[in-house]
Amino acid sequence: MAISVCFVVCTTRDEERIAAVRDGVDDLPLAFDNEKSKTKHIPVEARTTERGGRVPALAEQEIHTMASIPPADDLPTYLTPLPDRVEEMALRLAWVVVAVNLAGTVFGFWYYRFQLLNTQLVMWPVVPDSPLATLLMVASLVSWKVGKNRSWVHALAFVGNLKYGLWVVVVQIAINDVFATGDPYHWFLLVSHLGMGLQAFVIHRYAEFTLPAVGVATAWFGFNDIVDYFLPIVGDYHHTYFGPKLVNAGDHSVRAHDVAAAAAVSLTILATFLALAIRIRRLENGLASEVD
């Protein structure tokens, strides 16, 4: 008899749990943009049920774990320049992207081997910019795939890959003059880092760029800019050794240094702006959905 009662109670609770999840999922406000036919991304803060209450926490968790690829955002093209199909392909091949980034990380640390040997150990975290950024991309994708999202990891990966990916592109064009020289190695660096910058635009599909997370990313990469180009704390400046016009970190009298510094600071600002703009636009979309 006791076993029967327990079975009935447990079954009832399971049915209530399933109903709560179903209600939460079914009641999520969805809207479609006529122009881009995208499902609007409703931020966690804006998700409510039809009856005006919050979606149960269990439903929020279920939503996260059930959707392998989150729906596309209703965001302007300047915030999401990659086509939806490209974003979805990258997310479907997430483990391949992880493997490619791991290979790039290994190559990057090999590339920085001499500079690391000339740098005091305490400052090593600010030297290998690109390999650390690709390692953050690995951490971001893996944390999403295993259901352990970390907003600060996603923000660091977004800002880092966008910044250093595009920074290397600027260096190859403006300093190493890759179009004139046609150097195959510099072309390899340009193309691979362009891909690195573009992959940052996939992160928004599964990440919430919270204010504290964006603050952490901005503070870290802003600190990198300071010790790289303006105010070294331990030893010499720590920016990457690059190009024939700036062989080592000590010579800051050449114009190449100014170009590299301006590009680094500008890209830090740009990446921060884009992360915050994505968050603001999502909140606006959520408020508009509630009004509708």
What's this model, at a glance?
The protein has two domains: 2-66; 84-291, no CATH class. Residues 1-67 and 245-249 have low confidence and may be disordered.
What would you note in describing this structure?
- With 292 residues, the chain is mostly helical.
- It has two domains: 2-66; 84-291, no CATH class.
- The chain is 63% helix and 0% strand.
- The longest helix has 37 residues, at 255-291.
- It is globular and about 60 Å long.
- 33% of the residues are buried.
Which secondary structure elements does this structure contain, and how are they paired or packed?
Blueprint: H1 2-26, H2 57-66, H3 84-92, H4 94-111, H5 113-117, H6 129-145, H7 151-174, H8 178-181, H9 184-199, H10 211-230, H11 255-291
Helix pairs in contact: 1-2, 4-6, 6-7, 7-9, 7-10, 7-11, 10-11
Query: Residue-averaged pLDDT, rounded?
Result: 79
Number of strands: 0
Structural class: mainly alpha
**Helical percentage:** 55-70%
Task: Round the Cα radius of gyration to an integer and report it.
Answer: 23 Å
* Biggest sheet features: none
